[in-house]
Amino acid sequence: MGKIRLTGGENKRQSLRIPKGIRPTRAIVKRSMFDTLRDFVVNADVLEIFAGSGAVGFEALSRGASSCVFIEKSREGMLTIIENAKKLGVLDRIRVIKADFVRGLNDLIREQKKFDLIFADPPYDFLNHDELFKRIVSLLKSGGLYLVEVRNKTQLPEIWENLSKVKEVNFGQTKVVYYRMLSGDL
């Protein structure tokens, strides 16, 4: 069981538990993402997919997000997210869905949930990006952002329906790709 620290906001430097076998988003990557997002995260409704420990969602909450939904399929990950939320005093601002990404996202679509900001950090060998994109477009508010952390060699589309790639930042073998949900038809 490892630990990482939040990099900013009201819970800056607070440590989070990391379940064994989880590859958390590195601090430099989180800091870069949130330096880019700045005030966009304030009062945002956030979704973190492949949440692991919930580190990115908790970073968003620390920096002013209203709420965060975490989708995590492992029981250990789910319990770690709840434990981290209790430690940070944000249990009332989170929801944890214990499910694989397809079932979790489909449940949110059925509930007609919409998010300002969606993060995904799938395993490096993940090949179902089309399945992710297909669901993200139903969950992201107009003007909302989708950030996905992938292996540097992973090729993602420039445009997927109303999602348009706006930025890509490389961190060695990892990159974060930013998409914005455009309003109306393309």
TrEMBL record:
EC number, UniProt record: 2.1.1.171
CDD domains xrefs: AdoMet_MTases
Enzyme class: transferase
Entry keyword Transferase: yes
One Gene Ontology molecular-function label: 16S rRNA (guanine(966)-N(2))-methyltransferase activity
Protein name: 16S rRNA (Guanine(966)-N(2))-methyltransferase RsmD
Annotated keywords: Methyltransferase, Transferase
Highest rank taxon of the organism: Bacteria
Pfam families assigned: Cons_hypoth95 (PF03602)
InterPro entries membership: DNA_methylase_N6_adenine_CS, RNA_MeTrfase_RsmD, SAM-dependent_MTases_sf
